[in-house]
Amino acid sequence: MSNKSPHFDDSLLEAGKLNELRKLLTGLDQNELQKLQLLLNDPHEFSAEIGRLLPYSIRKMIESGELNHDSLLPFVEETIHQSILKNPKRLANILFPVMGPAIRKAVSEDIKRMLASVNASLENGFSPRALKWRLQALFSKRSFAEIALANSYLYHVSHVFLIHRDTGLLLHEETADESRPLESDLIASMLTAIRDFVGDSLKAADSGSLDEIQYGGLKILVEQGPYAILAVIAEGQPPADYRVTLMETIEAVHYNHSLDLEKFDGDTAVFQHTSKFLKQCLVKEKKATRPRPPIALIFLSAIILGLAAFFFIKGYQNRQRFQAFIKELEMSPGYHISKSRIGFNKLFVNGLKDPLAVPPNQMAGWADLDTSQIRLQLEGYISTDADIVIQRARQILLPPESVQFKLKNAILYVSGQSSEEWKQLLLQNYRSVSGINEIDISGLNQNVVDLQWIVPEIERHIFYFDVNIIRLDSVQQLQFDSLVGAAINLEDYNRIYDRNMAIHVRSYTNHHNPANEKVAFDRANEFRELLIQAGVKEDLLKSQVLFVEDLDRNVSLRSVHFSVFDTKPQQE
Question: Could you tell me the pTM of the whole model?
Answer without folding.
Answer: 0.34
